Amino acid sequence: MAAHLSVNINKYALLRNSRGRNTPDLLWAVDTCLAAGAHGITVHPRLDERHIRFSDVPTVFEHLRVHHPGVELNVECEDHPRLIDMVIDLKPAQCTLVPVRPGEVTSDHGYSFPDDGVRLRPTLRRLKDAGIRVSIFMDCDPGPMVMAAEIGVDRVELYTGPFAWAWGSPDQQLETKKVWDAAQAAVDAGLGVNAGHDLDRFNLVALKDLPGLLEVSIGHAQICRALEVGTTTSVRELLAALGYSST
Fold first, then answer.
1. Is 76 tagged catalytic?
2. Among 4, 39, 44, 51, which one carries the catalytic annotation?
3. Domain ranges of the chain
4. pTM for this structure?
5. CA 151 – CA 57 distance, rounded (Å)
6. CATH number belonging to domain 4-242
7. 197 belongs to the catalytic site
8. Phi first, then psi: what are they for 47, rounded to 5°?
């Protein structure tokens, strides 16, 4: 079965925030992406609220619950009490924990083991006790996958930035192998596999048969393509890259 596509709507929020009103409407974006065939929605609230705001998260969650029952919300966030409390209050299907460096433009690295594993344990326990599936952001390195499994996560989201940047370059084969090896190590450790960062309709084709791949979350490439062809077509192109029929 092909991996699911979860569309990250952060950049719709970023565009909305630039004018201070409600255009584009995030719930319109949710409805349009799902009508085009997306399987889920991702939001990544940050403490500076530069795109998704804290108030957006329960609004999107409730909209999905009422109008799209069964569609999963994936909340990506750092391990910060304010964010984790919000996630536990809402109980989305999945929480993806992502390490953050002050001042970073976007997520650019996975967790480091064993040190981060020790720090994450209490948060993982809280999320799991609340019945929330937990994924953590990881570099494409096979070595730490066993340690990730040992701290109790359900999935890892492989950081695919280096793979995406190498696409079409002499390093493409090497970076693709790194993703493959990390995914296989995760599967061998009993973990589910998600993937995300700079994936698009071209490079995604190379990952559709990745071992254990359950979900990809894509935001930036989707909205950039939407500027050219519209939201509906941009989502359908990603689904086609994953192997879904256009019919």
1. yes
2. 44
3. 4-242
4. 0.96
5. 27
6. 3.20.20.70
7. yes
8. -65, -30
